[in-house]
Amino acid sequence: MLRGGLIPRRPYVISGASGTGKTILAMQFIVEGLKRGEPCMWVSLDEPPNELKANMATFGWNLDHLKILDATPDIRMHKRKSVIDVGTTLDVRDMEEVKGIRVSQQLRSMEVSIHSVQKMLKQEFFQHQERTKENYQRMAIDSLTALKMFSLVGVDSRIMIQSFMRFLSELEATCMIVSEHLDTSVIETEFFLARGKMRLHKWLDGSSIRRAISIEKMRGSGFDDKMRPLTIGPNGVTVDPSGRVPLNTTVVHALGSQFLKTRIAEQVTVSIEKAFEMAEQCRHQGHDISHVQMDLTRAMLMIQMGHLHDAMEMVERVRLGMELLLKPKSEAPLPPPPPEEARGI
Ligand SMILES: Nc1ncnc2c1ncn2[C@@H]1O[C@H](COP(=O)(O)OP(=O)(O)O)[C@@H](O)[C@H]1O
Ligand SMILES: [Mg+2]
Fold it and tell me: Residue 195 in contact with residue 220, Cβ under 8 Å?
């Protein structure tokens, strides 16, 4: 379906409702890396590592060489004290440098969670590099939704997710981000910033559960855009790449109108992604782009509320502004010719 696989060192999203197979698929991706001797890391936010290992044991996967970072206590208890449990050498006092967004209890806990997970990853990558002279090549985060649970629904938390996604890209590991799909009409922030997105589906067919997978986006390569049957068996997830999913009314109903909506929103999404790339260029050139980030966040919010036209207008305006900033020097109007005396006439 991917026409050859994932392009390495980029972040991807696996989304789907609970029980669709996200954790199993992400782990299968990691296990494949372990088999090839690649250093791999799993960030556990949904279930404690011992439970995860027990669940995965049914597939006979050997996780001895997998580095599992347990961030569940942080997420579960959400007390400042527990942040220390997350990484042994983490000091909560270091977190004090994060401030100035808005002082609200919820947002503070959000800051601490994302910040501590980010810090924990940075530290682990660095130490691993020091120790082995190798980088982690595969990584999974299960799930980003757990990390977002405590966020305010608003602009600030989205900006934090944006910066977290940027951070993940910079780690240069192929990263699977699991995203629990709570509301099918919502397009999550991470969907915009991932290089590819796979969605897992589940519905009831009579008395049996059926599953399917579809690829909704894959930058830089072609892909099969049909929905294909997926089964979970003793060896993990199996996809039938030529199988068909009969789109009868039950299935269509079960999947909702999201499919259609996603297609419609795709154009705006591509536009926002381009704008993000331009914003990066602007940032490299030393321009202040905080207003751009704010406007793009607003545009994403508009998409989520179904105001696609308004979103498009906003994005186009932002892009126009950045185009002016990015204009190469040679295209700038020529300076007026020097006075005639200076040219010796
Ligand atoms: N050994 C197995 N054989 C078949 N199905 C399994 C097996 N282990 C788990 N499952 C199914 O996989 C589902 C859970 O998959 P999981 O990846 O944890 O979902 P998600 O992470 O999307 O919530 C469960 O609904 C369960 O029915
Ligand atoms: Mg799961």
Answer: yes
